[in-house]
Design goal:
Length: 331
């Protein structure tokens, strides 16, 4: 079939978002589970540092460090291609060759698979409810499901801050990145984005096992997120306090290690006029993270406001797509 028209892309985007809103992510037989197992097998076969967790640095790096780093990075590139390219290429072939209705069905299914708006809301909204009810222990446990920081002794502002940052960052990773790449390349684009994001979560760590092997997964995820993250930051600004969002984005984003999380979270926190970032405990170590946003300290209500900002941003993206499709049809 021919390339998707702007109106078709818009229609299929609406369908994918509605499916995600109604059903969320599949609770059983999720395709990502199978992909995760496949990626684990690929890493086990290709990663020259696969035994790093159980061996000494001297043993693992018997060859010169520079040569070893190059070998491991090349292996990471090959493993990334082996994990991502076959499923994306298969979907691209199927959507191109199947009859129109079947092709559209696959496009929508891929977008549904790539989206995580319902999952994000289902994980963050109970944190607000627990904080409003004064159940700090429950709020800590719920937030610990979506962040890696240690919240065992966190007070209400720290828990709220973690939930808000997670909602803002995952707005890009679980929603807007998928919508962007679907608009660019249909279902295969959305699928590729989700798989790239997943490999970064699996391999993109600076540990002895993945320091070099995971380099490609981390850098390619940064590249795939570069434009979506900045569009997400702009949307957060437009859907809240624009002046503060832009000011925080301009002054705070570059201080973050992640080139994409910085703009998204700084703009989002500024849009909400809430102070986030700052020190947090990770694996028993207190990390002095840069500031995010400005204004009052976060509380239960601000967790709900962060989710509302993400929801308004989804509506804004769909509205822009509809306007672009209308304009394209009139040309």
């Amino acid at each position: 079939m021919a390339a998707l028209s702007a109106s078709t892309v818009c229609m299929l985007c609406f369908a994918g978002v509605i499916l995600d809103a109604i059903f969320g992510e599949p609770s059983r037989f999720h395709p990502l589970v199978g992909f995760g197992r496949w990626a684990t097998c690929v890493a086990r076969a290709c990663n020259p540092d696969r035994q790093a967790a159980h061996a000494s640095e001297a043993h693992v790096h018997a060859m010169p460090v520079v040569a070893h780093a190059l070998l491991a990075r090349l292996a990471g590139v090959a493993a990334w291609a082996l994990a991502v390219v076959p499923p994306v290429a298969l979907l691209a072939v199927l959507t191109h060759r199947l009859p129109t209705m079947l092709s559209w069905t696959l496009h929508v299914a891929a977008l549904w698979f790539a989206l995580g708006a319902r999952s994000l809301i289902d994980h963050i909204a109970p944190v607000e409810q627990a904080l409003r009810a004064g159940d700090l222990a429950k709020a800590r446990a719920l937030t610990a499901r979506v962040v890696t920081r240690d919240l065992s002794d966190a007070d209400e502002p720290a828990v709220a801050r973690a939930a808000i940052e997670s909602a803002l960052e995952n707005g890009n990773d679980a929603i807007f990145g998928a919508l962007f790449w679907f608009a660019v390349a249909g279902g295969p684009g959305a699928l590729a984005f989700r798989l790239v994001n997943t490999l970064d979560a699996m391999w993109g760590y600076r540990t002895p096992r993945f320091r070099y092997f995971g380099w490609a997964a981390a850098r390619l995820d940064d590249a795939a997120n570069f434009l979506p993250a900045r569009l997400t930051a702009l949307t957060y600004a437009l859907c809240g306090n624009f002046r503060l969002a832009v000011a925080c984005w301009r002054t705070q984003a570059s201080a973050w290690d992640s080139p994409n999380a910085g703009p998204v979270m700084a703009s989002g926190a500024g849009s909400l006029n809430v102070a986030c970032g700052g020190a947090a405990w990770y694996h028993g170590v207190l990390e002095a993270r840069p500031a995010l946003g400005c204004g009052h300290g976060p509380g239960a209500a601000d967790v709900g406001r962060a989710l509302s900002l993400v929801k308004r941003s989804i509506v804004a993206w769909l509205a822009v797509m509809a306007l672009l499709a209308t304009a394209s049809a009139l040309v």
